[in-house]
């Protein structure tokens, strides 16, 4: 490497290195440190080691100062479940539509792809607010049900509302990776499978799904990550029944002002996300090796 | 089979667009108590936003209920300022990083290609509270500056990922031949698509901004979020409609510029 290229490299890389090591790694390190510090009285922090923050979540609390509260574990499991269901529903909704669009003529494809990404440009909070308008008792759903003389189902402030909201805002995240996978699908393999006497469901399970697996996995991870730590959707649509781990973090930081405990909760979210990512990369490596 | 697939796609698009249409339609409804019972056409909510209608603090009155137009305008201004600075910074720094890792082979290159994914993959709530503790520990007052810094962390990563993907699929020779079709597309991408994406993501960021915006530095999403939290009001429909309209215009403009570039 000549001194000249070395100079170029330094010029290109020093801004990002400096900026991200201070403002990205800095916050991550400090949050890890805070999660094992003692919460002080009146919302402060004392600089001494304290593992009961995690004990309070996972059950080894000392029983005196910190009490094990199973509610945090419950809410963590609920968040995992809601995020998982969101992924599955996004998948079920997007998969057929991806096939449908992939078969359209070029011009129509561009139009429909544009239509799917368009809501992504409209503000997230606006899109969630729309569901508040639809689901509230005097909202669109209630009005329609009343008009035909039926009792409207109570969806707002339940877990169903949270899933609905998350599916709605994360659909483009699932759709795009899925579509690029479906679009490059080798059609001749499907025909060959049919010619060789495979039933449609056999072709689907044995040919189509394995071939589109990269898109399925990619989309699932991209949806799961923001879903599991989400606090905006449960805040707007979830009510007390639909609280998620993100709401717990927000509460600790902005109302209870127990930052060490909030940091511990945030570390748990991070661990879950890292686990999901590692599972995904391991699978991707395996798939890559198999090919 | 084919018909049922088309029907499914139809329902899918209905699901995506119906909520947006509901907002737009009801932003013109004059019924302030039950917005979903049509009471006649009105522009009152829009007038109220711009401070030209009657206003009252009684939510059951037919006049506009909004704390202050200046607050809304200030939030919009903040959002635009933050988005402009953030877009400039993250586009420059992110593109520089992407150029470095695609043009050169050097030790530690994989640290950059892998490490640059992290801010994008980090759940925004973790980054948000991390930044909050960080700024309070180093004694930095929450302001527009902290919002800009916070957004730049994940936007730089975002720009890097997008540009790197583009550069990897681009022939270096094409990039240099300025009159060429490929170069033309690359220019449009660099000058239009990329800044547009960054700008929109910045304008729409809620979670990170929520944690690190001080009292005087609300942005449009945090402002609307706090309004929505206090309950459904007809003025929110009007703001929301304007935002939907603006985003459609921005998206369509980007598409049009792209199409024009690839036709040349």
Provide tags for this entry.
heterodimer, A: MetI-like fold, two-stranded antiparallel ribbon, 12 helices, 3% strand, globular, B: 264 residues, MetI-like fold, 2 domains
Reconstruct the topology from this structure.
The complex is a heterodimer of chains A (291) and B (264).
Chain A: H1 3-34, E1 37-39, E2 45-49, H2 52-58, H3 70-102, H4 106-121, H5 124-135, H6 140-147, H7 159-183, H8 187-195, H9 200-228, H10 232-238, H11 245-254, H12 259-290
Antiparallel strand pairs in A: 1-2
Helix pairs in contact in A: 3-7, 3-9, 4-7, 5-7, 5-10, 7-9, 7-10, 8-9, 9-12, 11-12
Chain B: H1 2-26, H2 44-49, H3 69-103, H4 109-115, H5 118-121, H6 124-137, H7 144-168, H8 172-176, H9 181-204, H10 207-212, H11 220-229, H12 234-263
Describe this structure in words.
The complex is a heterodimer of chains A (291) and B (264). Chain A has 291 residues and is mostly helical. Chain A has a single domain, classed as MetI-like fold (Orthogonal Bundle). Chain A is built from twelve helices and two strands. Chain A has helices at 3-34, 52-58, 70-102, 106-121, 124-135, 140-147, 159-183, 187-195, 200-228, 232-238, 245-254, 259-290, and strands at 37-39, 45-49. In chain A, a hairpin with a 5-residue loop joins β1 and β2 (45-49). The radius of gyration of chain A is 24 Å and the shape is globular. The mean pLDDT of chain A is 89. The two termini of chain B are 40 Å apart. Chain B is built from twelve helices and no strands. The radius of gyration of chain B is 22 Å and the shape is globular. In chain B, 72% of the residues lie in helices and 0% in strands. Chain B has 264 residues and is mostly helical. At the A-B interface, α1, α3, α4, α5 and α6 of A face α1, α3, α5, α6 and α7 of B.
């Amino acid at each position: 490497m000549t001194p000249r290229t070395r100079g170029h490299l330094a010029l290109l890389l020093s801004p990002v290195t400096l900026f991200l090591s201070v403002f990205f790694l800095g916050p991550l390190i400090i949050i890890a440190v805070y999660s094992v510090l003692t919460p002080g009285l009146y919302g402060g922090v004392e600089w001494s080691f304290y593992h009961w923050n995690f004990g309070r979540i996972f059950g080894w609390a000392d029983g005196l100062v910190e009490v094990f509260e199973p509610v945090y574990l419950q809410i963590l499991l609920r968040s995992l479940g809601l995020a998982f269901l969101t992924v599955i529903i996004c998948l079920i909704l997007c998969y057929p539509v991806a096939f449908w669009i992939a078969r359209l003529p070029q011009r129509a494809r561009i139009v429909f792809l544009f239509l799917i990404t368009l809501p992504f440009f409209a503000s997230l909070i606006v899109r969630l607010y729309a569901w508040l308008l639809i689901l509230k008792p005097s909202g669109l759903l209630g009005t329609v049900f009343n008009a035909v003389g039926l009792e409207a189902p109570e969806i707002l402030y339940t877990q169903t509302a949270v899933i609905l909201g998350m599916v709605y805002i994360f659909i483009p995240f699932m759709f795009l990776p899925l579509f690029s996978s479906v679009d490059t699908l080798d059609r001749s393999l499907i025909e060959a499978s049919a010619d060789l006497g495979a039933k449609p469901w056999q072709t689907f399970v044995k040919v189509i799904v394995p071939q589109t697996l990269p898109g399925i996995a990619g989309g699932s991870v991209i949806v799961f990550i923001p879903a599991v730590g989400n606090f905006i959707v449960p805040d707007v649509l979830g009510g007390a029944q639909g609280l998620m781990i993100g709401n717990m973090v927000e509460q600790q930081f902005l109302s209870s002002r127990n930052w060490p405990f909030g940091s511990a909760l945030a570390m748990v979210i991070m661990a879950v996300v890292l686990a999901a990512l590692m599972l995904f990369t391991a699978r991707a490596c395996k798939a890559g090796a198999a090919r | 089979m084919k018909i049922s697939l088309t029907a499914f796609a139809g329902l899918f698009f209905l699901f995506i667009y119906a909520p947006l249409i509901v907002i737009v339609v009801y932003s013109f409804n004059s019924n302030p108590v039950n917005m979903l019972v049509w009471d006649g056409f009105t522009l009152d909510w829009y007038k109220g936003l711009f401070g030209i209608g009657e206003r009252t603090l009684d939510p059951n009155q037919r006049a506009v209920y909004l704390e202050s137009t200046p607050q809304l305008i200030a939030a919009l201004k903040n959002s635009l300022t933050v988005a402009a600075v953030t877009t400039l910074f993250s586009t420059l720094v992110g593109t520089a990083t992407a150029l470095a890792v695609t043009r050169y082979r050097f030790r530690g290159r994989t640290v950059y290609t892998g490490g640059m994914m992290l801010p994008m993959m980090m759940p925004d709530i973790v980054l948000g509270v991390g930044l909050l503790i960080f700024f309070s520990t180093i004694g930095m007052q929450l302001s527009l500056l902290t919002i800009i810094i916070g957004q730049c962390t994940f936007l730089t990563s975002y720009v890097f990922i997008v540009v790197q993907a583009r550069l990897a699929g681009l022939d270096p020779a094409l990039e240099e031949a300025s009159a060429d079709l490929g170069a033309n597309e690359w220019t449009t991408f660099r000058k239009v698509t990329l800044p547009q994406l960054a700008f929109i993501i910045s304008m729409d960021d809620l979670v990170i901004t929520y944690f690190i915006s001080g009292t005087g530095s609300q942005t449009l999403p945090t402002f609307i979020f706090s309004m929505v939290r206090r309950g459904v009001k007809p003025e929110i429909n009007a703001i929301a409609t304007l935002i939907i309209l603006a985003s459609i215009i921005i998206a369509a403009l980007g598409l049009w510029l792209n199409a024009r570039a690839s036709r040349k």
